[in-house]
Structure formats: structure tokens, C-alpha cells
Amino acid sequence: MHTSKSLILVLILIGSIQSGMVAEQKFEPNYDESKVPDYTLPDPLILSNGDKVIDTKTWNEKRRPEILKLIADQVYGKTPARPGPLRYQVVESSDEALGGNAIRKQVRVFFTPDKAEPKMDLLIYLPKAADKPVPLMIGLNFYGNHTIHSDPEILLSESWMRQNDDKGIVDNRATEKSRGTSASRWSVDLILDRGYGLATAYYGDIDPDFDDGFKNGIHPVFLKDGQEKPAPDEWGSIGAWAYGLSRAMDYFEEDEDINQEQVAVMGHSRLGKSSLWAGAQDERFAITISNDSGCGGAALSMRRFGETVGRINRVFPHWFCDNFNTYNENEDALPVDHHMLIALIAPRPAYVASAVDDRWADPKGEFLSVLHAEPVYKLLGTSGFGATEMPELDQPVMGTLGYHIRTGGHNVTDFDWKAYLDFADEHFGR
Ligand code: GCU
Fold first, then answer.
1. Where along the chain do its domains lie?
2. pLDDT of 1-32, one tens digit each?
């Protein structure tokens, strides 16, 4: 009796450690600026051999590949190459969408040359009145394409989703009630009025967002014979979501209505982490936008303000590569920080947005990443950033690097979209 009771207790304890409960009961985010420890950021313009990078050639040929590899190996994991050509199927389209103002296309992207799964459904709206090809904003969504607008013609996603009563999810599937439930985050009319197209896909089509040992989604396609899960330096879910964005870009290159030179990739929160990693790796994205991406996205890990590396790795063990765990409560050992992720986007424009009440995402840490990426932008001959201090609330700064901190909390609002469109207009010469 006694032994079996202790055994049960031990099993419960092991179970809670595994689920992160024990560690998380103790996690108290630091929101006190005076308690941010001293830290020394790695210099994006010093090569690992100690030499300074003083010209574009050395940046492009030596330092950029070095940083790209460090971030892949230590943070998000390496991204595999595309396994042959993709297949696309236009599942639905209309020239009379949204009251006749828009063209709608729903395109199924098959991730392998020969199988029905995995696949991702792209929803694309294009402004009907605009001359083609049009510039485009692409962003992944959290609960299916049908949530971004109440348009009844959007295919209702059949994919697995996280349970969420407010979004009308029943038994992990969308229902008719789910339609339009995320519309406030997608300023579709504004985007179309400004002459831009909008494309979106459900992130769970690429990899469902739960820790299942990478059995579902896109990872199994790339496992070698006998390999059970990605190696410690191979991609997790954020890597997969970024990969999906690049496959959407592959499709845009085939669509004559879309200006492939003017595609901006945008993402919110975990999907902002993904848009940054997509924009860093895939130079076809002309502009990269991070909305409230926080820890593991735009925010500096070394500041340890709000969410931390250890906390994010324990609660979301599938997001990053296993090597990232090396830095749990050990941020000073990082050979890179997230200013270098933004530097990888240079000289292409990048915009980072924070919200003042979103302290969990560390607005100041997001700002500082942009600031410390600026030397690379300057070296490459761009206008850089332009700010040296955090701007006032709701006052966007727009150099080649852009930033704002808006009133309110963790969300995507019309204010954010308007800033992104202004920034894109500026850089696309519109
Ligand atoms: C959690 C997580 C964040 C993430 C956010 C989101 O809050 O801790 O890192 O950005 O979820 O994606 O909504």
C-alpha cells in the first residue's frame, strides 16, 4: 500500500514537471525596469573571429550567413528545402466578392508533389478597381480563413483548432458560428481601399499548434528514415509556420494579379515571431512586419522583462528548436539576440509594433531590437531607423526601420494596419 501510494505521488510529480506546472507556478514575470539585469548584446557587425564588418560585401558574404546559421541552429531550428514543386488548386474564385469591390481566390497549396496532405488553403482578396498586379499583405491567422471576414463564401476550415467557445469551435473544429469572429483584427476594407491585396492562411494547416512530438503537420514530410522527430538544431513549429509563408510566396510568383516585388509579410504574436523568421530567411518578402511578437520574436531575450526564454520553452516546447532550451534562465550565454533577427532583414524595410499594455511582450525590448539593428541598416546604405528613444504613444516612426507603440493591449487594430499601409506606401513609392 505504502509503496504504491508513494509511486503514485512520484508519478504525479513527474507528470506535473513534464507539463511545466511546477516551474510555472513559480514564474513571476519581471515588470520592473530597475530589475532588468545588465547585459551585453552581441554586436551584429563583429564576425565570430573578432573582425569588424565594415562593408556590404563582408556583411552579405560572411556575417549575414553566420547570424542566419546561429539563429537557425540555436533558436528556431534549420528549415529544410522544399521537396520538389508544389501543386496549387484554385478551389473557388469570384470577381464579385465583398459587394462587387473585390476579387476573391481560394487556392489550395499542396506541400508535396504527390500527396493530398499536408495542404494549406490560401484566401486572397484583391481590390477590383486597382490596376494589376497589386501589392499584397500576407499574414497567417489563428482560427481559420473564415474568421477574418463574415463573407459566407469563405470555405469553412476543416482543420483541427484549439478549443475556443468565443470562436464557435466545437470538438476542435470550426462551425458556422466561427465566421467573422476575428474580423476586428483584419482591416479587409481598409487594405483593399488602399489598393492592396490581402492573403491569409490558417497556421494550423501548416502545423497544428500543440506539442504532439511533431507527428502531424508538415514536419513528418521531412523526417529521414528512422528519424522520430526533428533533431535539436532542426525546426519547430515557428520554423514550420515561416516555411508556410514562403510557400504562399511561391504561389504569388505564379499569380499575375499579384506584384511579387511588393509582398509584405505580417504576423501577430506567435505569428509575428513567424513573420520575422520568414522575412529574415526569405528575401523575396519586400517588407516584414511584427505585431506584438514579444519573446522569441522582436523582443530582446537578454532583458528578461515579461515573458522569458525559459518560460516560453516550457509552456510551448514545440515552438523553437530543442537547442533553444540551453538558454532557459541562461540568456547571457546566447550568441545572438533578436536585434540580429531584424538585422537579417536588412536592407529590406522592417516594422515592429508594440502595445503599451502588452507588457508580457516587452514593448521596450521590441523597440531596442529595432534600435540595435540600425547599424546594419546604416552600413547597407539605408536611412536606418531615425529614433533614439521610444516614441510617444501612437506616433509611428518610419525610416527603413519602423516602430510604434500604440494605446491598448495585445491585439491587431485598424491603427496598426493603417501604419503598415503607410509604411508600405512609403517604401513601394505609392
Ligand atoms: C502567449 C505566449 C506569447 C505569444 C502569445 C500569442 O501569450 O506566451 O509568446 O506571443 O501567446 O501568440 O498569442
1. 61-428
2. 344 555 555 444 444 444 444 445 689 999 99
Tens of pLDDT, residue by residue over 333-345, are: 999 999 999 999 9
Q: Are 209 and 148 in contact (CB under 8 A)?
A: no
Give yes or no: 4 in active site.
Answer: no
Per-residue model confidence (pLDDT) at position 65: 98
Question: Are the beta carbons of 207 and 217 closer than 8 angstroms?
Answer: yes
Query: Does CATH place domain 61-428 in 3.40.50.1820?
Result: yes
Residue among 94, 246, 383, 410 flagged as catalytic? 410
Residue-wise pLDDT tens digits, 360-397: 999 999 999 999 999 999 999 999 999 999 999 999 99
Residue 358 Cβ inside 6 Å of ligand 1? The answer reads no
Q: Could you give the CA distance from residue 361 to residue 293 in angstroms, rounded to a whole number? A: 7
- Structure-block grid coordinates of residue 20: 511545466
Alpha carbon of 306 to ligand 1 centroid (Å): 11
Q: What is the predicted pLDDT for the residue at 26?
A: 84
For residue 270 and ligand 1, the question of a CB distance below 6 A is answered with yes
- Beta-strand relationship, 87-97 and 287-291: unpaired
Is 293 considered catalytic here? Answer: no
187 lines ligand 1 (CB under 6 A): no
Please work out whether the CB of residue 141 comes within 6 Å of at least one atom of ligand 1: no
